[in-house]
Amino acid sequence: MPVVDAAWEAWLSSNVTRGCSPESMIEAMVGAGFAAHAASAAVNQAFGRAPAEVAATSGATAAATEAVLARAAPQTYQYDDAPVARGNVIRADDRDVRVLMRCERPQVIVFADVLSAQECDEMIERSRHRLKRSTTVNPATGKEDVIRNRTSEGIWYQRGEDPFIEKLDRRIASLMNWPVENGEGLQILHYGTTGEYRPHFDYFPPDQPGSAVHTAQGGQRVATLVIYLNDVPDGGETIFPEAGMSVAASKGGAVYFRYMNGQRQLDPLTLHGGAPVLGGDKWIMTKWMRERAY
Ligand code: PD2
Ligand code: ZN
Asked: Quick check: 137 and 210 in contact, CB under 8 A?
């Protein structure tokens, strides 16, 4: 952190004499690495040493500091309306889906009956023999890595790849109230006992070089629907550690969460993970929605 040495003293007094505003001076010092309170104190002192007529017109440095801090602070996420319909039962294309719980910050909705028990069984049976060890996107490179954060196996279905998948894609898009064309293909994941997915964000971190590869088509992810395909006997909840919330896996039920608002801000409270499965296994089906057609 810099200190107010002779060179800075000279800079301060010449800027006061030139008629610079306290705000611009505090901003310049913060930009040079000073803490806001240190910059504010130094600017205050400089105006205090100035001739009375300059000091009188300088205004309050406290207000100037506030303005600088407000500009420097990361923008807090603004919660606007999620696209999901209101009400306790939502008509999702061909099926009525019950709402069990809604949370506004972060935006999380828990549903029952997104899939029937038979549809869950059919998805599991179709997928069982095609599973591969899951990968995770490396944020630095954008490549898929097998890492210990995610101990599951999975398979992707192309959007609308057959009539059964197409029906589910349409129902899910209708429930999420987002265009079916903006959806990634469905992903099935299977976790054995002890399997887990450590807390992460589903969006691609904008400041990481690897994200550009993933957002080139369809843009950023905006919302996720995780559908549970079986009842997990013990553990395996979807957890939101920043919100202190967990959702138990219940066959045919689902958890929706939305992390990108209309201003393209991303909600850090949607940090989430799959808790370790403590008994039995866990099957889920995930839909990620993008900003644009994918
Ligand atoms: O298995 C889950 O509950 C879970 C939790 C968090 C899955 C995902 N994220 C995911 O597939 O992104
Ligand atoms: Zn996730």
From this structure: yes
Residue 72 Cα to ligand 2 midpoint, Å, equals 30
Ligand 1 pocket, residue 284 CB under 6 Å: yes
Higher pLDDT, 136 or 170: 170
Q: Alpha-carbon distance 179 to 163, whole Å? A: 18
- Evaluate: CB of 240 within 6 angstroms of ligand 1: no
For 89-290, CATH number out of 2.60.120.620, 2.60.120.10, 3.40.640.10, 3.40.50.1220 equals: 2.60.120.620
- pLDDT of 290 > 80? The answer is yes
- Flag the least confident range among 19-28, 72-81, 192-201: 72-81
Nearest CA to ligand 1 atom 2: 274
Distance CA 6, CA 95 (A): 74
pLDDT at 99: 98
What is the per-residue pLDDT for 24? Answer: 87
CA distances from 117 to 61, 62, 88, 253 (A): 65, 62, 21, 10
Predicted local confidence at residue 189, as pLDDT: 95
Pairing relationship of beta strands 254-258 and 221-228 according to DSSP bridges: antiparallel
Q: Is the CB of 195 under 6 A from ligand 1?
A: no
Q: Please give the model's pTM, rounded to 2 decimal places.
A: 0.75
Q: Render the burial of 192-201: b for 16+ CB within 10 Å, e for the rest.
A: ebebbbeebe
Amino acid at 57: T
- Asked whether residue 15 carries a pLDDT value surpassing 80, the answer given is yes
Residues carrying CATH 2.60.120.620, the chain:
89-290
Q: What is the mean pLDDT of residues 187-207?
A: 94
C-alpha distances in angstroms, 254 versus 226, 230, 249?
5, 11, 8
